[in-house]
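User: Sequence recovery, please. Input:
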């Protein structure tokens, strides 16, 4: 909340910089394009993305299946579980998901041999 839209944009830049310092990518911040003006104040409601949306999940699973790697992908709630025998195949899937232009950053956890 501030007195001009320019100041709101500056606050968003500061917020993105603080998120980067904490290891969170700026693209995980969901900021609407319209800045609300009420009286003398301007404000915008920014939200952090949590989990993966169902449309993005389907794109990722389709990418994995089209890659012909020997892995299986399952959608579990707001996560995707990928299982496979070869560590190299799992790392290839991780690189493919990172390299794909899907509009949000991804975290990988529970990577076991």
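Assistant: Recovered sequence (113 residues):
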């Amino acid at each position: 909340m501030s007195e001009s839209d320019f100041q709101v944009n500056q606050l968003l830049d500061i917020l993105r910089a603080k998120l980067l310092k904490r290891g969170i990518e700026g693209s995980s911040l969901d900021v609407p394009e319209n800045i609300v003006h009420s009286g003398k104040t301007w404000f915008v409601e920014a939200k952090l993305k949590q989990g993966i949306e169902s449309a993005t999940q389907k794109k990722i699973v389709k990418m994995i299946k089209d890659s012909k790697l020997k892995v299986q992908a399952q959608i579990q709630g707001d996560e995707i579980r990928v299982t496979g025998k070869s560590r190299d195949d799992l790392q290839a899937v991780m690189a493919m998901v990172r390299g794909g232009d899907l509009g949000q950053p991804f975290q990988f956890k529970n990577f076991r041999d």
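The helical segments are 5-21, 54-66, 87-99.
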